[in-house]
Amino acid sequence: MFESKTGIFFIAGIGFFVLAFVSNGLLPMIMYQDLHEQTAEEVVNRRVMVQFRDLSERYPDAFTKAFGEVSEEKCAEALRLGRQVYIGEGCWHCHSQFVRPVSNESQRFGAVSKTEEYQNELQRPVMFGTRRVGPDLSREGGRHANDWHAVHFFRPKSVSADSPMPDYPWFFDGAPDMPNRRGLAIMTYVQWLGSWHETYPYYEELPEMQGED
Question: Residue 125, preceding bond cis, omega within 30 degrees?
Answer without folding.
Answer: yes
